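An example makes the point: we let one protein speak, the chain in one-letter code, the fold tokenised, and here it is:
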Amino acid sequence: MKAYLSFNLPDDRKAFMAAAKANDMAIALFEITSNLKRRAEWWLEGGDKTAGELLDYIFDEIHATVNEQGIDIDQLTE
């Protein structure tokens, strides 16, 4: 099976970038949904943490995962 996508650049740049980064986004989502909870639980075992510290940790991990996959959210959203 073959599929061809066609974009009218530069008008469709964001749609093109979303298609081009789809695999990277899937990898990032897999990492976040499969491993982040476990890493957060291990992080919490390190001592007393506040809810704010936990939120900061989780968002830092999400941003790190997205950055590791080379995903620039600004290129993908309007």
